[in-house]
Amino acid sequence: MDRKKILILAFALTIVAQFYVPISMITESEDILEGRPYKFRTAPIDPNDPFRGKYITLSFKENFCIVADKKEWLPGEEVYGILAERNGYAYIQSLEKEKPKIENYLHLKIRFQGDFDSLNKVYFDLPFDKYYMEETKALAAEQIYRESQLDTVRTTYAIVYIKNGKGRLSDFKIGDSSIRDIVR
Amino acid sequence: MKKDIQELVEAKVISSEIAKSIQDYYHQKEGSSSNKLVLVFGILGALLVGLGIILIIAHNWDGLSRGIKTFLVFIPLVLGQLALGYSLFSRKESKTWREASACFLIFAIGACISLVSQIYNIEGNLASFLLTWSLLVLPIVYIARSNIASLLYIILITYYLLESDYWSYKRQFNFFYWGLFLAIVPHIFILLKRRIETNFINYHSFLIPISLSLGVGAFVGEFPQLLSIAFMPLFTCFYGLGYIYKSPQQGPLSNGFILFGSMATMVLLFMSSFQDYWPIMKNVMWGTKVFQTETFYFALLFFVLALMIYFYYFKNKGKNWKVDLQPIMPVFIFFTAIFILGQFFPHIAQILINLLILGIGVLTIRQGSNMNHLGVLNYGLIIITILVACRFFDTDMSFVWRGLIFMSLGLGFFAANYWMIKKRKENG
Predict the structure, then answer these.
(1) Which domain covers residue A103, as residue numbers?
(2) What is the distance in angstroms between the Cα of B122 and the nearest Cα belonging to chain A?
(3) Do A89 and A23 belong together in one domain?
(4) I need a labelling partner for B302 at 20 to 30 A (CA). Which of A81, B57, B115, B351 fits?
(5) How many domains does chain A have?
(6) What is the pLDDT of residues A14-53, one digit of tens each?
């Protein structure tokens, strides 16, 4: 093969790779939508972590799990959380080190062990904490989100589809209306 | 100048052929400098247009459906690919086209990935994004023979290194980073060998040492103390490399390898000249556990590499040991020997390091005076001044003595500079 043919082939392969990465991300993400939707209740936002751009930063109430011995779960460790539901909202029932054989689990990273209460609590970040919106609407949406956390009547929650340990944030709701409709 | 040449021809100082070749020479030189300008503006233009498109898409148009947004995200990518294809197959000679389109494509790839994750709310972390992006940039470096791509690639892999647990206590040997770096080495070799675009070489000469030193800094393992004997030969490798490809006209300030290598060597020497340094080092190298750390093997590797680089410099470059040996060059050998000695006798090691620094200072001053170079002369004086200042922290000398020593150092600065300027004037 002469130089030019090699160059054409190499160039074609790089183009394929450049398309493959984003397209596989899209198909994988679309695939998660075939999984089960869960409602995750949100918590008041950390005021030190304000509006960062064109998304709302969500924080969740169920960002911990009670374990037998918290010393077994080290910060930074990657684990699997088994999902369950209570009053229609999702929470992590237990943690496992090996990939579970059941469907309803979530791939998580341990953040820290709870020191401030007597329970054996282990905290983690749920991996879907950014809800992207149009630049001009995100600030208003975040303010509404903040105010809604003071409202004890309406619950705020995110709808997340989960499949094979991965989650995809699909909507964020205050009461029964989507934040997109509220800020429209 | 044309008038002057005309005058010289008329006065029969030079022949008309010589006049023509002089004019041709300057004409060509002008051409290459305007080419450079086109290259710079081409790259800058590609960068700005690319960033502009990305920002517009990043507005996250809620009015558009997800499908249309996804379609829009792929437009810059396809444009970049078309531009690179065009420059590869139809504008083969144009470096500007190649560099600018490669630059645009690289940003389009990064934008495409990050915007897709934004549109689909895909979870992910910065480290894995940077890793994917670097892997996609790597083939562009070789296919487009693009130097801007290789600069961006080095920045990306270094950023990736820093994002993958670099600052946490559980950081460990990052195989991916070293693999990614090895993958760019052939391109760097070709670049150094061809020596065409000195500006691109200069940018590389700053980025490479910074990136590699951060890479070595990621090994901690059980014996962080071993890092210093891995760093020292690495720094002198940079220094030697800098001298190998240095052109005679180039000053040391634009040669990142020499500048970084020399500064980093001195910083490490000064750190190890303190009293508290050596007791920590004592007894590190006992036991077989040391031989299980990657730091040890990298130290060995860098030591051999440094030896090879200097052997090549003096053997193949026709350099003379007596004339061309720079004071920093043999430091790694002394330092490693002192480090091993320090396992048994920390105090003697500390004294030897101080003598080594003093020696480098004196030799640099001598070199400055031989070269008739004020910068080098003052660098040597600064080394000795810092050495003295550092020792003030260790010792309980009275203020009067310290004052007297500083005064004599200051007078030394005046005298040395005055002497050299006077010598210059005498030599006309």
Answers:
(1) 36-183
(2) 6
(3) no
(4) B351
(5) 2
(6) 999 999 999 999 998 888 888 888 888 887 655 444 434 5
Indicate if A47 and A81 belong to the same structural domain: yes
The H-assigned helical ranges of chain A are 3-32, 135-148, 179-183
Sequence-separated (6 or more) residues with CB below 8 Å from residue A46: A57, A59
Residues A103, A177: one domain?
Answer: yes
Residues A1 and A73 in one domain: no
Mutate to test the interface with B, among A4, A6, A8, A18 (most CBs of B within 10 A): A18
Rounded distance between C-alpha atoms, residue B364 and residue B296, angstroms = 31
Are residues A65 and A146 both part of a single domain?
Answer: yes
Are A135 and B60 a contacting pair at CB < 8 A? Answer: yes
Contact A134 B136 (CB under 8 A): no
Rounded CA separation B112/B73 (Å)? 6
What pTM, to 2 d.p., does this model score? 0.82
Are B113 and A10 inside 8 Å of each other by CB? Answer: no
Residues A95 and A155 in one domain: yes
Given an 8 Å threshold on Cβ–Cβ distance, is A18 in contact with B109? yes
CA B200 to chain centre: 12
pLDDT tens, residue by residue, B186-219 = 999 888 887 655 678 888 889 999 999 998 887 7
Say if residue A118 is in the same domain as residue A144.
Answer: yes
B140–chain A nearest CA distance, Å: 8
What lies within 8 Å, CB to CB, of A74 at 6+ separation is A110
Q: Are residues A4 and A45 in the same domain?
A: no
Q: Quick check: B132 and A167 CB within 8 A? A: no
Q: Do B121 and A131 touch (CB under 8 A)?
A: yes
- Interface mutation target, options B77, B123, B126, B153, chain A, most CBs of A under 10 Å: B123
Q: Which among B60, B112, B121 has the least Cβ separation from residue A169?
A: B121
